[in-house]
Amino acid sequence: MSDRSSAIVFGEQRLQGDLVAVAAVRGLVVFTHGSGSSRQSPRNRFVARSLQARGFSTLLFDLLSEDEEVDRANVFDIELLAERVLEALEAVPAPVRALPVGLFGASTGAAAALVAAARRPGDVQAVVSRGGRPDLAGDALVDVRAPTLLIVGAADDGVVELNRAAYRTLRCEKDLQLVPGATHLFEEPGALEEVARLAGEWFEAHLVTHR
Fold first, then answer.
1. What gap in Å lies between CA 99 and CA 106, rounded to an integer?
2. Is 211 a member of any domain?
3. Which of 75, 87, 203, 207 is the most buried (most CB within 10 A)?
């Protein structure tokens, strides 16, 4: 499936990333995980493999160093996390960086993805949030221009309403999809497969080769 799997290191904190470049390249999807998670997230890796099968290269990376994670305030510092997203984009090798870029965010990582998209409207073509906290993007929501898909477990109490409120605030092309019976981590049978399907179709529709 893949032409190349490689590691990248970037930033003063020497953050780690796992890049998979596939043969039939349709674009690059960058994953931004949530609080308490890392580039090893089994849920994000499952979705990444599904996207690779559709012809997308993927990048999973650590938003914080181990030392930074000790301070829990950093985990919810959306401004810091958004800057790390943009730093990761700059660290990707030039041939991959030239591809259409989509961001796939989970939990607080979804807010970071949206803030990054608002800051670089010419560089990010689509955003997908899985069980995210888009509300934490704050005022940046109205500046997002990239088509944005919010995916939430229908049984994820509280988070559904937060996503509905963010959906109303967004001014870009947008959609909100509730996965029936799913809770926050989409651990129910078939739930994560549905996330992967929805995300794949969204990126197929919105990541185009001419930028």
1. 22
2. no
3. 203
Q: Which of 103, 104, 169, 166 is nearest to 136 (CA)?
A: 166
Q: Determine, yes or no, domain membership for 158.
A: yes
CATH number of domain containing 177: 3.40.50.1820
Q: How many structural domains are present in the chain?
A: 1
Q: What is the pTM of this model?
A: 0.93
**Which two three-digit tokens encode residue 111?**
């807010």
Which conformational region is residue 210 in: left (phi greater than 0), alpha (psi within -120 to 50 degrees), or beta? beta
Phi, psi (5° rounding) for residue 141? -55, -40
- Domain enclosing residue 23, as ranges: 2-206
Q: Give residues with Cβ within 8 angstroms of 23, minimum separation 6.
A: 1, 2, 3
In tens, the pLDDT along 21-55 reads: 998 789 999 999 876 667 888 899 999 999 999 99
**Segment 51-97, tens digit of pLDDT:** 999 999 999 998 888 888 888 888 889 999 999 999 999 989 888 88
Task: Dig out the tokens for 68 from the structure.
Answer: 């930074």
- In angstroms, the CA 179 to CA 127 distance is 18
